[in-house]
Amino acid sequence: MILGYLLARAGVDVMVLEKHADFLRDFRGDTIHPSTLEVMHELGLLEEFLKRPHQEMRQIGGQIGDDFVIMADFSHLPTQCKFIAFMPQWDFLDFLAEHGKRYPNFRLQMQAEAIDLIEDQGKIVGMTRRDTDDEQTLGRITQGRMMVTLNRGDYWQCAYLIRKGDFEQIKNRGLEAFRADIVAVAPFLRDRTDELKGWEQIKLLTVLVDRLQKWYRPGLLCIGDAAHAMSPIGGVGINLAIQDAVATANLLGERLSRGTVSIADLQRVQFRRELPTRITQTAQVFIQNRLIRQILGSDEQIQLPWILRVLMRWPFLRRIPARLIGIGFRPEHVNRIFVAEAQGPTVA
Ligand SMILES: Cc1cc2nc3c(=O)[nH]c(=O)nc-3n(C[C@H](O)[C@H](O)[C@H](O)COP(=O)(O)OP(=O)(O)OC[C@H]3O[C@@H](n4cnc5c(N)ncnc54)[C@H](O)[C@@H]3O)c2cc1C
Question: Which residues form the domain of 32?
Answer without folding.
Answer: 2-133+207-338
